[in-house]
Amino acid sequence: xxxxxxxxxxxxxxxxxxxxxxxxxxxxxxxxxxxxxxxxxxxxxxxxxxxxxxxxxxxxxxxxxxxxxxxxxxxxxxxxxxxxxxxxxxxxxxxxxxxxxxxxxxxxxxxxxxxxxxxxxxxxxxxxxxxxxxxxxxxxxxxxxxxxxxxxxxxxxxxxxxxxxxxxxxxxxxxxxxxxxxxxxxxxxxxxxxxxxxxxxxxxxxxxxxxxxxxxxxxxxxxxxxxxxxxxxxxxxxxxxxxxxxxxxxxxxxxxxxxxxxxxxxxxxxxxxxxxxxxxxxxxxxxxxxxxxxxxxxxxxxxxxxxxxxxxxxxxxxxxxxxxxxxxxxxxxxxxxxxxxxxxxxxxxxxxxxxxxxxxxxxxxxxxxxxxxxxxxxxxxxxxxx
Length: 386
Ligand SMILES: C[S@@+](CC[C@H](N)C(=O)[O-])C[C@H]1O[C@@H](n2cnc3c(N)ncnc32)[C@H](O)[C@@H]1O
Description:
Blueprint lengths: L6 H12 L6 H21 L7 H8 L6 E4 L2 H6 L6 E6 L15 H18 E11 L3 E3 L10 E3 L2 H11 L2 E10 L25 E9 L17 E8 L2 E6 L15 E3 H8 L9 H6 L4 E3 L23 H10 L5 E4 L6 H8 L3 E6 L2 H14 L12
Parallel strand pairs: 1-13, 2-3, 2-12, 6-11, 12-13
Antiparallel strand pairs: 3-7, 4-5, 6-7, 8-9, 9-10
Helix pairs in contact: 1-2, 5-6, 9-10
Bound molecules: S-adenosylmethionine (SAM).
């Protein structure tokens, strides 16, 4: 969607740009482009009328505390400002695999997930990512029968790719999480050594990456000279509008005398190239292959008790990977199915703002608060949106 600026927007840009006048030339241009893009974004955000000031100021406060939002993520997402979240990381309920969430059949479950994913598309910032961990469970989809005759592998990942793409996201990558030897017998491995009796044990999950590229035809200034004399230069990807600077006096022109070519996506990526966002070489290397071995979280201690208080936490390696490789310091990272808040805790540890939404307050509250305290990151109850 294109957003044209109105007179008051120009006044705001000029007024704020005046504060840059004593800076070096390069910083003036960078600052001007940031102010300009910020005003366009604010004007785009103002088109959504459902935003709630209380929750938005709560989740954007960078105070080093994990942010807990109790409630249904669909209704909480509806209160959030458009394009205000920089990264989403989650592992949803795997249909009826656990007691905390149950649906009548797979179609009801997928319909609920679709509503949430569509709303998330509005809330996630443009050219940003959602890391989505899900397993292809074994169970009954309850479409035809409730009996064990309906049991099979349910390819949740495939269903989710379809929903994400219908909702506007682009499917980018899929890491296969090799879980090694699993805790439970997730699939019938037939003891009868004859054909048609054999099923594998389920030892993997998906860690899928989706991007949002909302088509935006708004004119942005050249990031090198700040000039608005730019022409459309085709698309550098699906829905990614690219521009070319037409200012002949621009500080940077190619050998063939072409102007700087840029897009909002390239500017977003350049903005993240700072010293504090640099990723350790060893870490990049450890995620180089798209099959990755990570031990699942051990929940049950020697006495048979669940020491974590949650039945389906994911390993911290997943949000660590997502946060380090797909967000920058100071960004807001949201997990709409927070569970034990692994994502939010990891985000805060990495100097981002970590936010989680969790429905089952009754079931998980004490375990969650305990878990967060163990990570030395306190949540103040009065900060908690009820
Ligand atoms: C697979 S668990 C997430 C585990 C989490 N990644 C962790 O490390 O603990 C899914 C969580 O989503 C919560 N949930 C289910 N439906 C929800 C909804 N509509 N809104 C918010 N949370 C929901 C469940 O209570 C459960 O805690």
